[in-house]
Amino acid sequence: MAADAGDSSFSSSSMEKQFGGFLQQLEQSGNLRDKIRAVAAEIESSTRVMHSCLLLVHESRPIPEVAAKAEAQIEVMKGLYGRLAEILRECPGQYYRYHGDWRTETQTAISMIAFLHWLQMGNLLVHSEVEQKLGLDSSEFGLDIEDYLIGICFMSNELPRYVVNQVTAGDYDCPRKVLAFLTDLHASFRILNLRNDFLRKKFDGMKYDLRRVEEVYYDVKIRGLAPIGDSTATKGPKHKHG
Amino acid sequence: MAADAGDSSFSSSSMEKQFGGFLQQLEQSGNLRDKIRAVAAEIESSTRVMHSCLLLVHESRPIPEVAAKAEAQIEVMKGLYGRLAEILRECPGQYYRYHGDWRTETQTAISMIAFLHWLQMGNLLVHSEVEQKLGLDSSEFGLDIEDYLIGICFMSNELPRYVVNQVTAGDYDCPRKVLAFLTDLHASFRILNLRNDFLRKKFDGMKYDLRRVEEVYYDVKIRGLAPIGDSTATKGPKHKHG
Amino acid sequence: MAADAGDSSFSSSSMEKQFGGFLQQLEQSGNLRDKIRAVAAEIESSTRVMHSCLLLVHESRPIPEVAAKAEAQIEVMKGLYGRLAEILRECPGQYYRYHGDWRTETQTAISMIAFLHWLQMGNLLVHSEVEQKLGLDSSEFGLDIEDYLIGICFMSNELPRYVVNQVTAGDYDCPRKVLAFLTDLHASFRILNLRNDFLRKKFDGMKYDLRRVEEVYYDVKIRGLAPIGDSTATKGPKHKHG
Amino acid sequence: MAADAGDSSFSSSSMEKQFGGFLQQLEQSGNLRDKIRAVAAEIESSTRVMHSCLLLVHESRPIPEVAAKAEAQIEVMKGLYGRLAEILRECPGQYYRYHGDWRTETQTAISMIAFLHWLQMGNLLVHSEVEQKLGLDSSEFGLDIEDYLIGICFMSNELPRYVVNQVTAGDYDCPRKVLAFLTDLHASFRILNLRNDFLRKKFDGMKYDLRRVEEVYYDVKIRGLAPIGDSTATKGPKHKHG
Hints:
The structure is a homotetramer.
Chain A: H1 5-55, H2 63-89, H3 95-98, H4 103-121, H5 127-133, H6 145-168, H7 174-191, H8 198-222, H9 231-234
Keywords (chains A, B, C, D): Cytoplasm, DNA-binding, Nucleus, RNA-binding
Subcellular location (chains A, B, C, D): Cytoplasm; Nucleus
Main location (chains A, B, C, D): cytoplasm
C-alpha cells in the first residue's frame, strides 16, 4: 500500500465532498420515490373502490348501473396518472428506474378497466384504448406492454366466476360468448413467444380459466339449456361467433 | 354483456393485429436483453480473472506485479462497457429498464477496481474516476451511484483479510493505515440517509470489517509491534492521519 | 503431517498439471452440454408450436386439418433428435450423463405425438412407433422407457378436456370411446411395479383423468344422450370394445 | 377420433404386450438399482468407520497409528468398488444412469482418502492415485472428475479444524504448511472455469477454509510462536514453500 499521510488526508477530504454530493442525489431520488409511492397508493385505493363496484355484476346487477360507478373511478385514475406523469417529467429517461413503484397497482387497474370494457362491449380493450382512457401518452409516460398483458391475464381470472353467476341467474347464452372471447384471447397470447418470467406464469394460469368456462358451457349444453342452434356456429373453423 | 356477433368478430381481428405488434416489440426487447446479458457475462468473466490476480496480494506478492495484470482487465472491461453503451444507444431512456441485467456484475467490477486503486494509492477511488477508467459517460451511459456504493462495500469486505495477511508477513504498520481509511469510509457512508434496502444491508456489514481491523490493530499495538509514534495521529478528531 | 519443502513443491507442480487436464475435460463436457441444451431448446420450441396446433381440437376443428400442421412438427423434431444423436455420438456410453438436459422436453414431445396418434387412430402409440417417428435407434440413441411413460401420463391429462368439449359440440359417443381407452391404459400401467418416484406420481394423477371421463360418460348416459346399445360392450371383462 | 372396435381391441392387446415388456425392463433396472444401493450403503458405512479413525488426528494421536486403521478401510472400499464395477458390467454404457446412487458416498470416500494421504505425504492425492487405491479402471468403471473434485473440497473443510487442534497441541509450524497447501489448491481450482453448479458452490466454500487458516497462522505469527525464519520463504513469489 503506497498511502502516506498526505494521500490519506487528501482522500479523506475528497471522500467527504463526494459523499456530500451523494447525499443530495440520494435524497432527491428518495423524495421522488416517496411522491411516486404516494400516488401509487391512491391508484391502489381507487382500484379497490372500482373492484367493489364491479363485484356487483356477480350479483347480476344491470351492467349500466355497475358501469356508471366504475367509470367514475377511471376518471379518478386518469387524474392520478396525470400526476405520476408530471412527477416523472422531473427526471427524463428514468421511467423504468421507478417503474416497480407503480406497476402492480397499474396491472390491477388495467384488469378492472378491461373487465368493465368487456362487460359493456364484449371485446378486448386494446392497449391504445387504455392509454386514452387514462390520459397516457406513449411518447412521454406510457403504459408498459407487459403491464397491460398481465392486467389482461388478471381480467381473465374474473371470467369463470362471472359465467357461473350468470348461468345461476338464468343467462344460458353467457358461457358460449365468454368461451368464444377467452378462446380468441388465449390464442392471441400464444402468438407471443413469452420467455420464462412473471408474464409467462400469469398466462399459464389463463388455461385454467378457459377450462372452467368450457366446463360450465358443457353443463349448460348437456342439460339442453343453451339457446337452440348455437352449437355449430360457436366454435366454427374461422372463429366467427354467431 | 352487450357483445353480439359483429363486435366479437371485429374484436378478434383487432386482437390479432395488436398481438402481432406485441410479438415484434417483445422480440425486440428480448433480443436486446440477450445482447446485454452476453456482454454482462463477459464482464463477469473479466472480473473473475481480475479477482484471481488480486488474490495474490494476500500472498504478499509485490503490488506493482499484481497491478500490472489486474489493470489489463480494466482495459478489457472498458471495451465491454463501450459495447453495453452502444447496445443501450438503440433504446434511449431505457437504461433502467435493463439495469438489472448488468448491475451485479458491475458492482463486483467496481469492488475490484477500487481495491486495486486503494492498493496503489491508499485512498478511495471516487465515482468520477471509475467512470473515467471504464470510459463511461454520465450523460449517456453512466455508473449508477448505488452500484458504485455497493461495490465499495464489497471492497471493504476484502480489507480484514488483507490486513491479517500483511501482519503475518511482517508489515505491522498496515493495520493503522487500513483502519484510518476504513474509519473515514464508514463515517462517509454514515452521512448518507440510507433507506431500508440492499445498499443499507451491505453497508451494515461494513461495521464487521471495521471491527476486525480494529482487533488486528489492537493485537499489533498491545504486543508493541506497531511502529513507534503512530498512536495519537491515527484516529484524531479531524481524521488527519499523520 | 510429513510434508517438507520438497514434497510440497513437487505437489504444487503435479497439481497444476492435473488441473490443467481437468480444465480441458470440463470445457469439453461443458461445451457438449451447451450444444445439447441448444437442441433441447429447439425441441421445446417445436413442441410449443405443436401444442398450439393440437389445441384446436378443443374447438372441434376437424382432425385431419389439425393433424396436418402438427405432423409437420414431428418432422422438425425428427431432425432435432438426429442432431442430438449425432452430438452424443462424440461421447459413447454417456447418454445418461446428459439425459437430464433433454428429458423434460422429450416427455412433452411424446405427450403431443401420442395425443395426435390417438386422435387419428384411437389407440396407444407404442414405444417402438415413437422411436420410428422420431428416427431414434435404441441401439444407439433411443427413447428412455420412463420418459415414454411419463409422456403418456401427460397425454392422459389432455383427455378429460377433450371429452368435455366433444360432448359440448354434440359428439355423445366420445366419452365411451375415451373411457374404454383410458381404462385400458390405466390397467396397463397398473401392471408395472412403479417405485416411489416421479413416474409413480404422474401415474397417480391419471386416476383423476379417469374419474372425470367417467363422470362425463355418466352425464351423457343418464340423460339418454349416448347412442343406443353401447352399454354392455363398453367395459366388458376382456376389454373387447364392440 | 377414428377409433372403431377393431382398432381399440388391437390396441388393447398390443398395449398389454408392450407393458408386459416394460414390466420386465423396469424390474431389471429396479433390481440393478437395489444391488447398487446395497453396495453404496456399505461404502457409506466404511467411510463412517474411516471418519471415526481420522477424527483421532484432531486429538493429536500420531499419524502412523491413525493411518493404519484408516488404510484398512481403503481396502474394504476397494472390494466394494470392485463389486460395483461388476454390477455395472451387466449394463454397459449405463454408468451415468445409476451414478446418482453412489456419487455422494464416493465423494465422502474421496475426501477421507485424500485427507489421509495429505496427513501422510503433505501433498494432494491426484485423481489417478485414488483410482489406483480403489482399484478403479477409467476405461471401465472410473472415478468421475467432478466427484473427485467435490471430494477434495470436502477434504479442505477438514483443514481449519486440524490446524486449530495442532496449534493447541503445540505444533506451531502446522498453519504455515497447511496455508501453503491450501493456497496452491485454491489457486488450482481457480484455473477451472466452473459453471454455476454444485461443484462451484462447494469450491466457493473453500475460501472460508483458507481464511480461517490464515487467521490461525496470523495468531501464531503475531505471538512470535511460529518457528523463526519462515516468513519470507512461506509465501514467496514462486510458491516455493521452504
